[in-house]
Amino acid sequence: MPEGYSYEIRETAQELFVTEGRTYDQVARVTGVSVGQLKRWGMAEGWSAARKEYREALSSIKRDTVRLRAKLLKAALAAGEPQAVYAFAAIEKAAAAGKKKADPGPVFAPEKLKSINTPAAAVDALQEVVELKLNNMLAQPDILQLSQIKELKQTMELIDQMKAKYNPEAVDDDDQVSGGLSDEAADMIRQQILGVTRK
Q1: Which of 166, 175, 176 lies closest to 125, judged by CA?
Q2: How many of the other CB atoms lie within 10 Å of CB of 68?
Q3: By CB atoms within 10 Å of each CB, which of 2, 11, 26, 197 scores lowest?
Protein backbone atom coordinates (compact mmCIF):
# COMPACT_ATOMS: atom_id res chain seq x y z
CA MET A 1 0.00 0.00 0.00
CA PRO A 2 1.45 3.39 -0.88
CA GLU A 3 0.03 5.10 2.20
CA GLY A 4 2.18 3.00 4.52
CA TYR A 5 -0.75 1.74 6.63
CA SER A 6 -1.34 -1.91 7.36
CA TYR A 7 -4.38 -3.72 6.10
CA GLU A 8 -5.49 -4.25 9.72
CA ILE A 9 -5.54 -0.48 10.37
CA ARG A 10 -7.58 0.12 7.25
CA GLU A 11 -10.00 -2.69 8.12
CA THR A 12 -10.39 -1.38 11.69
CA ALA A 13 -11.06 2.12 10.40
CA GLN A 14 -13.73 0.81 8.03
CA GLU A 15 -15.39 -1.21 10.78
CA LEU A 16 -15.42 1.77 13.15
CA PHE A 17 -17.03 3.95 10.48
CA VAL A 18 -19.46 1.45 8.97
CA THR A 19 -20.63 -0.78 11.82
CA GLU A 20 -20.03 1.40 14.87
CA GLY A 21 -21.21 4.59 13.19
CA ARG A 22 -18.28 6.74 14.28
CA THR A 23 -17.33 9.95 12.50
CA TYR A 24 -14.11 10.36 10.54
CA ASP A 25 -12.72 12.51 13.36
CA GLN A 26 -13.46 9.80 15.93
CA VAL A 27 -11.94 7.10 13.72
CA ALA A 28 -8.85 9.26 13.23
CA ARG A 29 -8.39 9.59 17.01
CA VAL A 30 -8.68 5.82 17.51
CA THR A 31 -6.52 4.67 14.59
CA GLY A 32 -4.02 7.52 14.25
CA VAL A 33 -4.85 7.86 10.54
CA SER A 34 -5.48 11.39 9.24
CA VAL A 35 -9.06 12.44 8.49
CA GLY A 36 -8.08 13.17 4.89
CA GLN A 37 -6.70 9.66 4.40
CA LEU A 38 -9.80 8.13 5.98
CA LYS A 39 -12.05 10.11 3.64
CA ARG A 40 -10.03 8.93 0.63
CA TRP A 41 -10.43 5.32 1.76
CA GLY A 42 -14.11 5.91 2.43
CA MET A 43 -14.69 7.36 -1.06
CA ALA A 44 -12.72 4.61 -2.79
CA GLU A 45 -14.48 1.79 -0.93
CA GLY A 46 -17.97 3.27 -0.52
CA TRP A 47 -18.01 3.41 3.28
CA SER A 48 -21.04 5.75 3.45
CA ALA A 49 -23.15 3.43 1.27
CA ALA A 50 -21.96 0.43 3.30
CA ARG A 51 -22.92 2.22 6.53
CA LYS A 52 -26.41 2.96 5.18
CA GLU A 53 -26.84 -0.64 4.01
CA TYR A 54 -25.61 -1.95 7.37
CA ARG A 55 -28.05 0.23 9.33
CA GLU A 56 -30.97 -0.79 7.11
CA ALA A 57 -30.10 -4.48 7.51
CA LEU A 58 -29.79 -4.07 11.27
CA SER A 59 -33.18 -2.36 11.46
CA SER A 60 -34.72 -5.09 9.33
CA ILE A 61 -33.29 -7.78 11.58
CA LYS A 62 -34.66 -6.04 14.68
CA ARG A 63 -38.13 -5.68 13.11
CA ASP A 64 -38.17 -9.29 11.96
CA THR A 65 -37.00 -10.50 15.37
CA VAL A 66 -39.80 -8.61 17.11
CA ARG A 67 -42.31 -10.06 14.64
CA LEU A 68 -40.98 -13.57 15.22
CA ARG A 69 -41.16 -13.13 18.98
CA ALA A 70 -44.75 -11.89 18.73
CA LYS A 71 -45.71 -14.80 16.45
CA LEU A 72 -44.12 -17.35 18.78
CA LEU A 73 -45.84 -15.82 21.80
CA LYS A 74 -49.25 -15.97 20.08
CA ALA A 75 -48.62 -19.58 19.06
CA ALA A 76 -47.52 -20.51 22.58
CA LEU A 77 -50.58 -18.86 24.13
CA ALA A 78 -53.02 -20.33 21.59
CA ALA A 79 -51.69 -23.88 21.56
CA GLY A 80 -50.47 -24.20 25.12
CA GLU A 81 -48.09 -26.85 23.86
CA PRO A 82 -44.77 -27.33 25.66
CA GLN A 83 -42.81 -27.11 22.38
CA ALA A 84 -44.28 -23.72 21.49
CA VAL A 85 -43.68 -22.39 25.01
CA TYR A 86 -40.11 -23.73 24.93
CA ALA A 87 -39.43 -22.10 21.54
CA PHE A 88 -40.68 -18.76 22.81
CA ALA A 89 -38.65 -19.03 26.02
CA ALA A 90 -35.50 -19.90 24.03
CA ILE A 91 -35.94 -16.87 21.74
CA GLU A 92 -36.52 -14.57 24.74
CA LYS A 93 -33.44 -15.95 26.51
CA ALA A 94 -31.32 -15.38 23.40
CA ALA A 95 -32.68 -11.85 23.03
CA ALA A 96 -31.89 -11.04 26.66
CA ALA A 97 -28.37 -12.48 26.34
CA GLY A 98 -27.74 -10.46 23.17
CA LYS A 99 -28.92 -7.28 24.84
CA LYS A 100 -26.70 -7.90 27.85
CA LYS A 101 -23.63 -8.44 25.61
CA ALA A 102 -24.39 -5.43 23.44
CA ASP A 103 -25.06 -3.09 26.33
CA PRO A 104 -23.33 -4.13 29.54
CA GLY A 105 -24.07 -0.80 31.10
CA PRO A 106 -21.65 1.44 32.91
CA VAL A 107 -18.97 -0.10 35.02
CA PHE A 108 -18.05 1.83 38.10
CA ALA A 109 -14.51 1.62 39.42
CA PRO A 110 -12.62 3.79 41.84
CA GLU A 111 -10.04 6.12 40.34
CA LYS A 112 -7.31 4.73 42.58
CA LEU A 113 -7.01 2.53 45.62
CA LYS A 114 -7.46 4.29 48.93
CA SER A 115 -5.18 4.05 51.88
CA ILE A 116 -7.07 2.37 54.73
CA ASN A 117 -5.29 2.83 58.03
CA THR A 118 -8.15 2.98 60.56
CA PRO A 119 -11.46 1.21 61.15
CA ALA A 120 -13.27 4.47 60.28
CA ALA A 121 -11.46 4.58 56.91
CA ALA A 122 -12.45 0.95 56.31
CA VAL A 123 -16.09 1.84 56.99
CA ASP A 124 -15.89 4.75 54.55
CA ALA A 125 -14.31 2.52 51.90
CA LEU A 126 -17.00 -0.14 52.38
CA GLN A 127 -19.71 2.49 52.05
CA GLU A 128 -18.17 3.69 48.80
CA VAL A 129 -18.12 0.12 47.45
CA VAL A 130 -21.79 -0.32 48.35
CA GLU A 131 -22.68 2.97 46.65
CA LEU A 132 -20.81 1.91 43.50
CA LYS A 133 -22.57 -1.46 43.54
CA LEU A 134 -25.94 0.25 43.98
CA ASN A 135 -25.24 2.61 41.06
CA ASN A 136 -24.22 -0.34 38.90
CA MET A 137 -27.40 -2.23 39.82
CA LEU A 138 -29.61 0.78 39.09
CA ALA A 139 -27.92 1.25 35.72
CA GLN A 140 -29.14 -2.23 34.72
CA PRO A 141 -32.75 -2.42 35.98
CA ASP A 142 -33.67 -5.23 33.58
CA ILE A 143 -31.44 -7.69 35.46
CA LEU A 144 -32.10 -6.33 38.98
CA GLN A 145 -33.35 -8.97 41.42
CA LEU A 146 -35.18 -8.61 44.71
CA SER A 147 -32.56 -10.71 46.49
CA GLN A 148 -29.87 -8.20 45.46
CA ILE A 149 -31.91 -5.35 46.94
CA LYS A 150 -32.42 -7.24 50.21
CA GLU A 151 -28.71 -8.06 50.49
CA LEU A 152 -27.77 -4.47 49.75
CA LYS A 153 -30.20 -3.21 52.41
CA GLN A 154 -28.70 -5.57 55.00
CA THR A 155 -25.21 -4.48 54.03
CA MET A 156 -26.15 -0.80 54.37
CA GLU A 157 -27.57 -1.50 57.84
CA LEU A 158 -24.31 -3.21 58.80
CA ILE A 159 -22.33 -0.23 57.59
CA ASP A 160 -24.50 2.03 59.76
CA GLN A 161 -23.67 -0.20 62.74
CA MET A 162 -19.98 0.00 61.90
CA LYS A 163 -20.17 3.79 61.60
CA ALA A 164 -21.75 3.99 65.04
CA LYS A 165 -18.89 1.97 66.49
CA TYR A 166 -15.87 3.26 64.56
CA ASN A 167 -16.87 6.67 63.22
CA PRO A 168 -19.60 8.05 65.51
CA GLU A 169 -19.28 11.65 64.24
CA ALA A 170 -20.38 10.48 60.76
CA VAL A 171 -23.70 9.07 62.08
CA ASP A 172 -26.75 11.26 62.71
CA ASP A 173 -28.39 11.02 66.13
CA ASP A 174 -31.45 9.49 64.46
CA ASP A 175 -29.35 6.73 62.91
CA GLN A 176 -27.47 5.69 66.06
CA VAL A 177 -27.30 1.94 66.49
CA SER A 178 -26.53 0.54 69.91
CA GLY A 179 -23.73 -1.95 70.35
CA GLY A 180 -20.90 -2.93 68.07
CA LEU A 181 -20.71 -5.07 64.99
CA SER A 182 -21.90 -8.62 65.63
CA ASP A 183 -20.00 -11.67 64.43
CA GLU A 184 -22.90 -12.46 62.09
CA ALA A 185 -22.73 -8.96 60.62
CA ALA A 186 -18.98 -9.18 60.13
CA ASP A 187 -19.33 -12.58 58.44
CA MET A 188 -22.04 -11.20 56.17
CA ILE A 189 -19.79 -8.31 55.09
CA ARG A 190 -16.91 -10.69 54.46
CA GLN A 191 -19.07 -12.95 52.29
CA GLN A 192 -21.17 -10.43 50.38
CA ILE A 193 -18.75 -7.57 49.85
CA LEU A 194 -15.31 -9.09 50.12
CA GLY A 195 -16.22 -12.60 48.92
CA VAL A 196 -14.32 -14.42 51.66
CA THR A 197 -15.47 -16.86 54.33
CA ARG A 198 -14.13 -17.25 57.84
CA LYS A 199 -12.61 -20.63 58.64
Answers
A1: 166
A2: 14
A3: 2
